[in-house]
């Protein structure tokens, strides 16, 4: 008793797999007694914020006062469909090209705070420098910098000591905030085609197996991937 209840869902702006809108999901969690509601995993910071905006609008319309939590991926997922990054062909062992920069995290932290989110964190893909960026962006609001900020100078100020002048020119916030990073992969597309297997919550194929998938079953799955449902 006396403990705060936090309830978050692995859903995006399209809602859950049962067809419940994301805003209604938030309202149901709040009415069930959750003190904090929100989004975790499956989508990138900015897709999660889109979902949280819908949650906040629905909560406000229902007159419900709860705190908001955001724990997104550290991978960009603008091309993910309703189930999020698990449908991307790169999941789970080739997601590195999608990793968010620390500057993405500064932007995410600020947008989340402006939205009214006060539990701002992360999920899969988050590295220590991501978390440090969140804390540094909100240093004034938090009342100070995190301990890890002792390891570097803020907003690339350490580059002022670089031997190359074009690198020293990057020692400012605006350079990094406006940079559009390249992937260095000339034959790769910017976006992927997610797998749409046509299965949803409750489907027998989604049940956890007790034994490892056999070679024959793998072959069937591969055939399904080629031909579709």
From TrEMBL:
Stated name of the protein: Hcy-binding domain-containing protein
GO biological process, one term: L-methionine salvage
Annotated Gene Ontology cellular component terms: cytosol
Domain Hcy-binding: 1-138
Keyword presence, Disulfide bond: no
SUPFAM superfamilies for this protein: Homocysteine S-methyltransferase
UniProt pathway: Amino-acid biosynthesis; L-methionine biosynthesis via de novo pathway; L-methionine from L-homocysteine (BhmT route): step 1/1
Organism: Cherax quadricarinatus
PANTHER family linked: BETAINE--HOMOCYSTEINE S-METHYLTRANSFERASE 1 (PTHR46120), HCY-BINDING DOMAIN-CONTAINING PROTEIN (PTHR46120:SF1)
Ranges in a coiled coil: none
Lineage: Eukaryota, Metazoa, Ecdysozoa, Arthropoda, Crustacea
Keywords: Metal-binding, Methyltransferase, Transferase, Zinc
Entry cofactors: Zn(2+)
């Amino acid at each position: 008793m006396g403990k705060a209840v936090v309830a978050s869902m692995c859903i995006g702006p399209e809602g859950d797999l049962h067809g419940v809108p994301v805003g209604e999901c938030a309202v149901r969690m709040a009415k069930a007694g959750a003190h904090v509601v929100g989004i975790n995993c499956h989508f990138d910071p900015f897709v999660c914020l889109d979902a949280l905006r819908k949650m906040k609008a629905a909560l406000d319309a229902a007159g419900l006062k709860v705190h908001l939590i955001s724990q997104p991926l550290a991978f960009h997922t603008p091309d993910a469909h309703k189930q999020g990054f698990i449908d991307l062909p790169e999941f789970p062992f080739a997601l590195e090209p999608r990793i968010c920069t620390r500057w993405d995290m500064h932007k995410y932290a600020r947008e989340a705070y402006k939205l009214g989110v006060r539990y701002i964190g992360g999920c899969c893909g988050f590295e220590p420098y991501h978390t440090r960026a969140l804390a540094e962006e909100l240093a004034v609001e938090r009342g100070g910098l995190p301990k890890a900020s002792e390891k570097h100078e803020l907003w690339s100020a350490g580059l002022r000591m670089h031997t190359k002048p074009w690198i020293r020119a990057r020692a400012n916030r605006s350079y990094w905030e406006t940079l559009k990073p390249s992937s260095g992969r000339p034959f790769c597309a910017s976006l992927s085609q997610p797998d749409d297997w046509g299965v949803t919550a409750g489907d027998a194929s989604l049940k956890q197996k007790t034994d490892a998938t056999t070679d024959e079953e793998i072959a069937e799955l591969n055939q399904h991937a080629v031909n579709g449902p």
